[in-house]
Specification:
- By secondary structure, the chain is of the alpha+beta class.
- Helix content is 40%, strand content 28%.
- The chain is built from 4 helices and 7 strands; from the N terminus they run αβββααββββα.
- It has helices at 9-24, 62-73, 82-104, 153-168, and strands spanning 29-32, 39-49, 54-61, 111-112, 116-122, 134-140, 143-151.
- Strands 1, 2, 3, 4, 5, 6 and 7 form a 7-stranded antiparallel sheet that branches.
- A hairpin with a 2-residue loop joins strand 6 and strand 7.
- The longest helix is centred in the middle third of the chain and has 23 residues, at 82-104.
């Protein structure tokens, strides 16, 4: 099995997010987005512990997630409460995390925390992610979906060192 530090995490995160969005939320993914998530955004973060360890965060505007939540819950979009939107975002983060980990480390055991979801107003042009994270923004029906993995520092340091070695060769 290849080392975790040389895997293409962007490709795995893209594939995981795309599969979850399309199969569980019946939402079309059109590809990588040059835009970012703006407006009244719901962010959901959970921690995974094992090897590797870190966090997965998803972000999606309330306007974009509402029809997805209706698809997922089998309700009309205007019937969905804010609490239900938050629960759907938590479940979406959980599914993306589980999917990406099963693609990269299926033979390992992980402990996942319960996702924490919060709302934040994000104006146009504001970046919503950290610099050390692996980030995938997707153009989807009705908007943009962002997902990111931020590894604990030990693995992140190994990834940076590996990138430097690969650049020298």
């Amino acid at each position: 099995m290849p080392s975790l530090v040389v895997l293409d995490w962007n490709a795995f995160l893209f594939a995981a997010a795309q599969e979850v969005l399309e199969t569980m939320f019946f939402t079309s993914v059109y590809g990588i987005s040059q835009g970012s998530v703006t407006g009244n955004v719901l962010f959901s973060t959970l921690r995974f512990e094992g090897y590797p360890s870190g966090t997965v965060t998803i972000g999606i505007s309330e306007e974009t997630v509402r029809p997805m939540a209706a698809n997922f819950l089998g309700l009309e979009a205007d019937e969905i409460t804010l609490n239900q939107l938050e629960q759907v975002c938590s479940e979406l983060a959980n599914m993306v995390c589980g999917n990406v980990l099963s693609r990269t480390a299926a033979d390992r055991t992980f402990r996942l925390t319960h996702p924490q979801t919060h709302q934040k107003m994000v104006p146009n042009g504001v970046k919503t992610v950290t610099f050390s994270a692996i980030i995938v923004n997707l153009d989807i029906e009705n908007g943009v979906f962002t997902s990111q993995i931020d590894f604990d520092s030990a693995l992140h340091d190994q990834q940076e060192e590996n990138s430097k070695l690969n650049a020298i060769v």
